[in-house]
Amino acid sequence: MNNRPDYIAELARFACDTRLRDLGEEALARTRWVIADSLPVIAAGMQQPEMQAFMKSHLASTGGGLAWVLGTRRRASVSDAALLNGTAGTWLELDEGNLHAKGHPGIQVVPAAVALAQELGSPGDELAIAAALGYEISSRISRAAKIKLSVHPHGTWGTLGAAIAVGRLKKFDEAKMMELINVASTMGMATSRQTLLDGSTVRNIFTGHAGLMGLMAARLVECGFTGERDSPASVFGKVLGDEFVASKVTENLGREWMVAGGYFKLHPTGRYVHSAIDALEDLLAGVPGGRLDLARIERIEVRTYKLAAMLAEKRVTSSFGARFSVPFALATILHHGGSGLAQFEQAAVDTEAIQALAARVDLKEDAGFTARYPAEQICDLKIVLAGGKFFEGRCMIMKGEPANPHTTAELEGKFMQLGVPVWGEETARRLLEGCMTLERIDNFGTFADRFNL
Predict the structure, then answer these.
(1) Does residue 221 sit in the same domain as residue 277?
(2) Residue 416, C-beta contacts closer than 8 angstroms, at least 6 positions apart
(3) Residue 326 placed within a domain
(4) The domain spanning residue 244 has which CATH number?
């Protein structure tokens, strides 16, 4: 089909012709970290009981392969690795994301790209640019669409991102890349945001699906399958969304890199919960000793933007559901004196004192804050004690955003904190060093063979 819209032709040329040097240092540095950050997040998520059962059941009926199944010390085919790694990568809610893309591009692109680069023996610079392009194009498609609030963003436009990365690693020409954009756009899921509000772990398969279907889309194009004329506009503007502005897709293409606008997480919760956590940290900085007498807390008032205010469940019942509850997050951090993986595990959920404190949270939307999102992610927090004394805290820009970034030491600390329990300190350190010099790797398959992950 030769009557593709101009923006799809432009995206295809961009996906085929862009070189690593075109990224610029800021976007390249972020790309290295998107890949690096994903690996221990996946490995740690793979240790969850459900993932262990899924991995063992799935691999029992498949053949071997060259690709890491991270956190298992096993290898699998590219498709199986992308499925399993992508699914594990969202389990702990520690994966990278992007407010302007309205979702999590990295964990939908990286598993497929890393697995295929291992199989093909791709140079590290090709893996880096493939991941950056998949991230970039899928994020721009999402930014241009007004996707329904009821749709969970995982497993939708991320399928296109994975496909672009795969097509680049396979050296697709412009004609194939145009076809790939249209084929992959139709291969996402009909995902429900209610899954995260209900704490339903089926939601984690959405990102595994994105990697798996991105690989499948490339295979279909190689076999001669075709897509509709303008699939992104149809799927993201009519089926999953209410509007699609094609001109926004290519606006400043190659000059403004979406990957440079992403965020990294240090708390194992949904991103919008972080506004309240940051406000709590600001509040506690003004409390002598940094701790409050929980028995004296009468109520906790939270005013924030709509997407954060939606995460209002007070009586969570599962570890996964706890990661999407502002009341629970505040209560468990106040109870434990900090946030980490243990503070969101089932033992914390089953602690009645935490549940009782969560019940005293009053969470409401402030329409003015919603109007200023996503440029600002405002949350005002007030803790009122018995007798009327109160403390206040505020978040304007969440920690981890480009305007309020984590330090390199903090990101390295997260990598080691998650990676060392699974791989050991020496292996985790060597893997991190390799990711930070990714473009110097001649053959990523040979590099991968040095690690038993």
Answers:
(1) no
(2) 425, 428, 429, 432
(3) yes
(4) 1.10.4100.10
Task: Name the burial class of residue 335, with classes exposed (0-12), middle (13-18) and buried (19+) by CB atoms within 10 angstroms of its CB.
Answer: middle
| Range list of H helices, 240-381 | 246-249, 273-284, 306-309, 319-322, 326-336, 346-349, 352-358, 367-372
Quick one: what percent of the chain has pLDDT higher than 70? 100
Q: pLDDT above 90 covers what percent of the chain?
A: 97
pLDDT, the chain, mean = 96
Overall domain count for the chain: 2
Q: How many CA atoms lie within 13 A of 32 on its CB side?
A: 23
Residues 411-437 have a mean pLDDT of: 98
CA–CA dist 125, 439 (Å, integer) = 4
434 in the same domain as 374? no
pLDDT in tens, 382-397: 999 999 999 999 999 9
Q: Which domain holds residue 173?
A: 6-266+408-448
What pLDDT shows up at residue 197? 83
Residues 92 and 181 in one domain: yes
CATH of residue 364: 3.30.1330.120
Q: Are 432 and 378 found together in one domain?
A: no
Does 31 share its domain with 154? yes
- When pLDDT is cut at 50, 70 and 90, the band that residue 63 belongs to is confident
**What is residue 98's DSSP assignment?**
B
* Phi-psi region at 58: left, alpha or beta (left = phi > 0; alpha = psi -120 to 50): alpha
What pLDDT, on the 0 to 100 scale, is given for residue 89? 98
- Give Cα separations from 139 to 143, 279, 393 (angstroms): 6, 28, 32
With a cut of 60, say whether residue 327 has pLDDT above it: yes
Q: What letters, b where the CB count within 10 A reaches 16 and e where it falls short, cover 61-94? A: eeeebbbbbbbbebbbbbbbbbbbbbbbbbbbbb
Which pLDDT value is given to residue 54?
97
**413 found inside a domain:** yes
Q: Are 189 and 160 in contact (CB under 8 A)?
A: no
pLDDT at 3: 81
Q: Are residues 228 and 318 in the same domain?
A: no
Q: Are residues 426 and 330 in the same domain?
A: no
The mean pLDDT of 126-136, rounded to a whole number, is 98
Q: Categorize the per-residue pLDDT at 131 as very low, low, confident or very high, splitting at 50, 70 and 90.
A: very high
Task: Identify whether residues 252 and 289 lie together within a single domain.
Answer: no
Cα 63 to Cα 143: distance, rounded to the nearest angstrom: 38
